[in-house]
Specification:
4 strands, Recoverin, domain 1, metal-binding, two-stranded antiparallel sheet
Length: 394
């Protein structure tokens, strides 16, 4: 059977566009009606409780396959596709009688319902209907989500656009490595970012968890506040000199120059979106996407690897900062040997991005080369480890 591919209507074909949008909206509404609602989930839990096996395994409620099939029939049409042999087999956990945990089954169904609900919700913003969200689609989604998140109630309305920009940037930085300007809905559902975002529905979310959550109000205000503090001439952009004050102010000059060479700038200055990428890369140096960003900066000749010349090119600035602080500079040859021993590249003279990722030490290498504080932390790692492991004297 031949499958006929339907072309997307052009932007000028307004009627076709409207017809397609209406058809997609009706499809999503129909899919939404097929999901279990809260009252149906409550009824399902009652059914599960009634049909559990006799408890012989502590307090855990279990269910056998016969009762599993029976509940699938009693639960109604929206329930049946959760009660298949495949699901039962998937949830097996070495029970001697071949049963599955009632709670595990219910949590599985709850998770599936949440995934489908979220996918439908995201798909409503998928203007093209191609299974991905563009930057503007994500912005609309998060902007309309803000009123449903109690933890963001305190944000001034004038800050909403900056909050949206901050939130969307994390999705794009980590889920759009090729910088296509769009993210697959499937990837959004598979990562933990939506969980972090929707955690903000919890009015009692502890302060420490909020501060560690990129999407929280304290985190967004912190990042934007830092940007404003760096912008000394208040033109809304950051120059190299202004960015040099980032963090503890110990990032090297040559690293910052490379950042401005490799990243999108406007008349030699960095805007807020580019700054967010910079922050996400530095705050998550162990992540593959961050290492990809930083490797591109370190690879001064765009040759796909770092050699002794590249390493020395960056480490010279570390040595200069040591001299400025009246410290005896560490020998580059010693550092180079340590780096190659640490990374263990396939080619003993070249370090590729693949080598960095495989070694699990990519963040350490980056810190040694771009940040004096990062180098000192590495240089004094044994002393610091000793201090942390010392038992308190009573």
């Amino acid at each position: 059977m031949l499958i006929k591919l339907v072309k997307l209507p052009k932007e000028s074909e307004i009627l076709s566009q409207k017809l397609r949008e209406e058809a997609r909206s009706l499809f999503l509404q129909r899919r939404s009606r097929q999901l279990l609602e809260d009252n149906e989930l409550k009824d399902l839990w009652v059914l599960l409780s009634k049909h559990q096996s006799a408890q012989v395994n502590g307090d855990e409620q279990m269910i056998n396959y016969e009762d599993f099939k029976k509940i699938g029939e009693l639960g109604g049409s929206n329930c049946r596709h959760y009660f298949t042999p495949v699901v039962f087999a998937k949830l097996q956990n070495k029970d001697l009688q071949g049963r599955i945990s009632t709670m595990t089954l219910f949590n599985y169904i709850m998770h599936k319902v949440w995934l489908h609900q979220t996918r439908i919700g995201l798909s409503l913003y998928d203007v093209t209907g191609q299974g991905y969200l563009r930057e503007s689609d994500l912005e609309n989604y998060i902007l309309e989500l803000i009123p449903t998140l109690p933890q963001l109630d305190g944000l001034e309305k004038s800050f909403h656009n900056f909050y949206v920009c901050t939130a969307v940037r994390k999705f794009l930085f980590f889920l759009d490595p090729l910088r296509t300007g769009r993210v697959r809905i499937q990837d959004i559902l598979a990562c933990s970012f939506l969980d972090d975002l929707l955690d903000l529905r919890d009015e009692g979310l502890p302060k420490d968890i909020q501060e560690a959550n990129w999407f929280s109000a304290p985190s967004a205000l912190r990042v934007y506040g830092q940007y404003l503090n760096l912008d000394k001439n208040h033109n809304g952009m950051l120059s190299k000199d202004e960015l040099a004050k980032y963090g503890t102010g110990t990032l090297t000059r040559v690293f910052l120059e490379r950042v401005f060479q490799e990243c999108l700038t406007y008349d030699g200055e960095m805007d807020y979106k580019t700054y967010l990428d910079f922050v996400l890369a530095l705050e998550n140096r162990h992540e593959p996407q961050s290492l990809h960003y930083l490797f591109r900066v370190l690879d001064i000749n765009n040759q796909g690897y770092l050699d002794s010349f590249c390493l020395n090119y960056f480490f010279r600035d570390i040595q200069e900062q040591m001299i400025q602080q009246d410290h005896k500079p560490v020998s580059f040859l010693d550092v180079k040997d340590e780096i190659f021993d640490m990374i263990k590249p396939e080619n003993p003279f070249k370090i590729t991005l693949k080598d960095l990722l495989k070694s699990g030490q990519g963040d350490t290498l980056v810190s040694i080369l771009i940040d004096l504080n990062g180098f000192w932390n590495y240089e004094n790692r044994e002393a610091m480890a000793g201090e942390n492991s010392e038992e308190p004297v009573i």
